[in-house]
Amino acid sequence: MAHPAQLGLQDATSPVMEELITFHDHVLMAMSLISLLVLYALFSTLTTKLTNTNITDAQEMETIWTILPAIILVLIAFPSLRILYLTDEVNNPSFTIKSIGHQWYWTYEYTDYGGLIFNSYMLPPLFLNPGDLRLLEVDNRVVLPIEAPVRMMITSQDVLHSWTIPTLGLKTDAVPGRLNQTVFTATRPGVYYGQCSEICGANHSFMPIVAELIPLKIFEMGPVFTL
């Protein structure tokens, strides 16, 4: 869960999110070095009074500042493509859960447990307990196992939605008439929060997602739903 004045990303709870954080730091370092180089060049240009005709017409320098950005883009593109393929990879999921977006709540269907279906609504402020998070708590959490690949089948019944949990590195659009899928493996138990990340109408801000991750042995006894 993010906290006020947090500068970095949320702690990773899946291998894909760990890769995303590493890639973020990699690109941020490249951007910082480029920014420092550009600022140094601007400062030197504004403060020096010396001119050199060799600088105004230098083929070698023009070649360098053309090739160097291309090399930097390649170093950024290859890790990005690797993570892109990792997010789309499906590795024999152990469980399949279907999520359906509505205006403005979510419906979850456990297809491996006899088609168990329930709705997940945001809790109004009057029903919150001490310590609950306003606009993020729901009446029924989606319970998921850790250390096992889980496939989420995501769709919508009315308008565009987006099923998003940042700490898991998940963001999949819910499109009416289309069934999207994403596979993830959680690495540690806990309660993790997300929200619909697609503007879907007047109450777009009021359809949170709460995932409760529990050990696989407990989950195999049967889904447990908590308020």
UniProtKB/TrEMBL annotation:
Topology in membrane: Multi-pass membrane protein
Alphabetical list of Pfam families matching this protein: COX2 (PF00116), COX2_TM (PF02790)
GO molecular function: copper ion binding; cytochrome-c oxidase activity; oxidoreductase activity
Reported cofactor(s): Cu cation
Record SUPFAM superfamilies: Cupredoxins (SSF49503), Cytochrome c oxidase subunit II-like, transmembrane region (SSF81464)
Entry keywords, A to Z: Copper, Electron transport, Magnesium, Membrane, Metal-binding, Mitochondrion, Mitochondrion inner membrane, Respiratory chain, Translocase, Transmembrane, Transmembrane helix, Transport
Biological process annotations from GO: ATP synthesis coupled electron transport
Main location: mitochondrion
Keyword tRNA processing: no
GO cellular component: mitochondrial inner membrane
Domain Cytochrome oxidase subunit II copper A binding: start-end pairs: 92-225
Protein name: Cytochrome c oxidase subunit 2
Source organism: Mandrillus sphinx
Gene: COII
